[in-house]
């Protein structure tokens, strides 16, 4: 009788739990984003700790959303730590890839384009982002020149491609966050979509076309963090047949 009652109680009170991993180069803003998400969605609404230090190892928290628990894995992005990421792939339900929009030059891989003789043409993916639908003078693609410094754009591309090419991430929803949009020197989200993201998706195997989106955020001010969590929430549910949640 006790076991039956316990079982019924568990059934009535349990929720689906999904896991999301935060990836991106070191200094991209993963831990800052994680802090803001915790302050919005942990039951005790803690103040975000914004004086972060580089992550070695992992920070984990479980956000409480109305219809699920969302477990966040915030891992270190330093070069030597990236090989550890793959151990999370098979159990994650979504990937959030965070980009420092102030450390990617002008946002276009123009040297690569010139060498390969390609342009950012139509790509075979369903990436659809939000944000402004035009470019400003400050980020006008026409102003691109091969002498423009590209920051860590190429590194970012290679790392993102490596994540997407791993068979264990196939079909997993991907949210790309163009972070640090509060800064004057940031590259706009539309440009990141048209440059880096389009390029990466052009290389993706047709079989692994995934649900994806690019959103602008400022992890430091918290702008866009709620929308990012909302997107992940809806997509892990849509994808639950491929990657079922655990009950908790
Ligand atoms: N201006 C601005 N600075 C930010 C933003 N997000 C993060 N930063 C700063 O960027 C630096 C790195 O942030 P972290 O969150 O520690 O970066 P990380 O991706 O966790 O770095 P690793 O743990 O080394 O992989 C810190 O100085 C943050 O304050 C943002 O949206 N705007
Ligand atoms: Mg960190």
UniProtKB/TrEMBL annotation:
Keywords: GTP-binding, Hydrolase, Magnesium, Metal-binding, Nucleotide-binding
GO function terms (MF aspect): GTP binding; GTPase activity; metal ion binding
Record-listed GTP binding positions: 24-31, 77, 179-182
InterPro entries (UniProt xref): P-loop_NTPase, Small_GTPase_ARF, Small_GTPase_ARF/SAR
GO aspect biological process, one term: protein localization to Golgi apparatus
PROSITE patterns for this protein: ARF
Pfam families according to UniProt: Arf
Region ranges (Disordered): 117-150
Protein name: P-loop containing nucleoside triphosphate hydrolase protein
Organism name: Microdochium trichocladiopsis
């Amino acid at each position: 009788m006790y076991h039956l009652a316990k079982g019924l109680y568990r059934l009535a009170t349990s929720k689906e739990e999904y896991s999301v991993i935060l990836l991106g180069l070191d200094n991209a803003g993963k831990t800052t984003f994680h802090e803001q998400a915790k302050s919005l969605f942990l039951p005790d609404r803690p103040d975000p700790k914004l004086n972060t230090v580089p992550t070695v190892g992992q920070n984990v928290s479980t956000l409480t959303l109305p219809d699920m628990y969302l477990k966040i894995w915030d891992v270190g992005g330093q070069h030597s730590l990236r090989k550890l990421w793959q151990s999370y792939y098979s159990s994650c339900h979504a990937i959030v890839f965070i980009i420092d929009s102030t450390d990617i030059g002008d946002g276009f891989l123009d040297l690569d384009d010139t060498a390969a003789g390609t342009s950012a043409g139509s790509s075979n993916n369903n990436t659809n982002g939000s944000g402004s639908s035009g470019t400003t003078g400050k980020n006008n693609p026409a102003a691109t020149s091969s002498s423009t410094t590209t920051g860590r754009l190429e590194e970012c591309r290679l790392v993102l491609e490596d994540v997407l090419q791993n068979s264990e991430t196939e079909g997993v929803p991907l949210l790309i966050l163009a972070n640090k949009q509060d800064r004057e020197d940031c590259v706009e989200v539309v440009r990141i979509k048209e440059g880096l993201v389009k390029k990466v998706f052009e290389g993706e195997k047709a079989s692994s076309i995934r649900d994806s989106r690019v959103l602008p955020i400022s992890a430091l001010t918290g702008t866009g963090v709620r929308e990012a969590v909302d997107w992940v929430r809806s997509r892990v549910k849509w994808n639950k047949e491929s990657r079922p949640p655990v009950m908790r």
